[in-house]
Amino acid sequence: MKKSFEAYQLHTGDVIASIGAASGVWEIGLASMQSGLTFYIQDIDEYSCNDEEVAYAKAYWERQLGRAIDGTFYAILGTPQKTNLPKSTFDKVLIINAFHEFQYLEEMLHEVSQILKPVGKLIIEEEIALTQGQIHEGCGLPLFSETQLVNLLEANQFRLDRIVEKESYLKVFIFEKK
């Protein structure tokens, strides 16, 4: 998580959306490393993405750390085609190990472009296919190659800023709006 935190460059006062975040366990863990963050935890699964589950995840982290986490967390239920997040609001939009699961890639990328502030960053942390046709072990869906992912984003109004390699198969892609 520390390497992700460093790659994301989160700062006090940042307003962050995390799409496909379930109950926000990862996001709340990130917030434990930096005070003053606001997270909109978004998912399409109403059973994991709700106020009760987010509060449970926060309480879990606080028990583990033995201290309160200074952050604000909102659960937002979306659909496969809409985030239901407010426009021009976010300094950063995170998609952590979920991009390969999107059913409507171009629609969601348009949504992300709309919800980011003009100088906001889209950060995608994703397992990358090392061989053609490789699938994600957890969900069984196809993975993107690095080239496929970058080309898709660049064709949809984003420009690659940088790539941070966590492992040979796991990378953090940081994009800006064109």
Q: What's the CATH architecture?
A: 3-Layer(aba) Sandwich
Query: Briefly, what CATH class?
Result: Alpha Beta
What oligomeric state do these chains adopt?
A: single chain
Query: What characterizes the major β-sheet?
Result: 7 strands, mixed
Distance between the termini: 29 Å
**Spatial strand order of the main sheet:** 3-2-1-4-5-7-6
Number of domains: 1
CATH superfamily: Vaccinia Virus protein VP39
Mind explaining what this structure looks like?
With 178 residues, the chain is an alpha/beta fold. The protein has one domain (2-177): Rossmann fold (3-Layer(aba) Sandwich), CATH 3.40.50.150. Helices cover 28% and strands 31% of the residues. The chain has five helices and seven strands. It has helices spanning 2-8, 25-31, 51-65, 105-115, 146-154; strands spanning 15-19, 37-43, 71-77, 90-96, 116-127, 158-167, 170-177. A seven-stranded mixed β-sheet has the order 3-2-1-4-5-7-6. Helix 2 (25-31) links the parallel strand 1 (15-19) and strand 2 (37-43). The protein starts with a helix and ends with a strand. The model has no long low-confidence stretch (mean pLDDT 95).
Reconstruct the topology from this structure:
Elements lengths: L1 H7 L6 E5 L5 H7 L5 E7 L7 H15 L5 E7 L12 E7 L8 H11 E12 L18 H9 L3 E10 L2 E8 L1
Parallel strand pairs: 1-2, 1-4, 2-3, 4-5
Antiparallel strand pairs: 5-7, 6-7
